[in-house]
């Protein structure tokens, strides 16, 4: 299994789940239908799993796809939170400083966050990122970081 799967493939995966078709997903994401199809085929290949089967009414999610959905949605939520956090700062990189706290599951912390955090730190070197990685819901509720990533 490939562990360096681009976020765009998961984003397309979620859109296909929500829309039920490649054409619906491509409209939602403003990409072409062939691009959406390539994303799904590449994700299936990287995971070594079939995620959708064709039917007369569109694409049907397999059990694997349904099991992955919650994790992909968590990745989406974390990516959106990072984008919102970064956009809350002024556009003057020199003046941006402070602490950004992110709580995430282990999968998101290993697969999704590193490139996003690297870009954020590259464009805003004065910030400190506190990252909490845990698969336990209780950790998310405490607001206390247990692992520093800077």
Automatic annotation (TrEMBL):
The keyword DNA-binding applies. It comes from the Bacteria. Gene3D superfamilies: 3.40.190.290, Winged helix-like DNA-binding domain superfamily/Winged helix DNA-binding domain (1.10.10.10). The keyword Transcription regulation applies. Residues 5-62 form the HTH lysR-type domain. One of its GO terms (molecular function) is DNA-binding transcription factor activity. Keywords: DNA-binding, Transcription, Transcription regulation. Belongs to the LysR transcriptional regulatory family. This is Transcriptional regulator lysR family. It comes from Klebsiella michiganensis.
């Amino acid at each position: 299994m490939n562990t360096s799967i681009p976020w765009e493939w998961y984003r397309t995966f979620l859109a296909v789940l929500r829309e039920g078709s490649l054409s619906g997903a491509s409209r939602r994401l403003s990409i072409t239908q062939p691009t959406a199809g390539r994303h799904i085929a590449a994700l299936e290949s990287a995971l070594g799993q079939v995620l959708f089967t064709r039917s007369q009414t569109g694409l049907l999610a397999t059990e694997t796809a349904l099991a992955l959905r919650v994790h992909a949605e968590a990745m989406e939520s974390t990516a959106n939170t990072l984008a919102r956090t970064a956009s809350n700062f002024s556009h003057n990189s020199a003046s941006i400083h402070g602490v950004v706290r992110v709580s995430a599951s282990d999968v998101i912390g290993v697969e999704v966050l590193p490139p996003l955090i690297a870009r954020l730190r590259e464009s805003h070197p004065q910030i400190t990122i506190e990252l909490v990685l845990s698969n336990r819901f209780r950790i998310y509720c405490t607001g206390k970081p247990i692992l520093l990533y800077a």
